[in-house]
Amino acid sequence: MNTEEMNATQAEAGQRFRDIQQKLGEKAKNYSQVTDQYVHENAWTTVAIAVGIGFLAGFLIGNRD
Known about the structure:
mainly alpha, elongated
């Protein structure tokens, strides 16, 4: 493989990486918006879930004898 081919391969890999990065960013933004909407619509359910997870984590950490 010569230098030109290596440069072309590197440029193609860079473009693929940027495309993947952009798609992941869009998905993360989408998930963030959906989560925000859910929390606003179900505030008390969200609080109960957070308390339950906190209790479970504390229980598991506390039982590490």
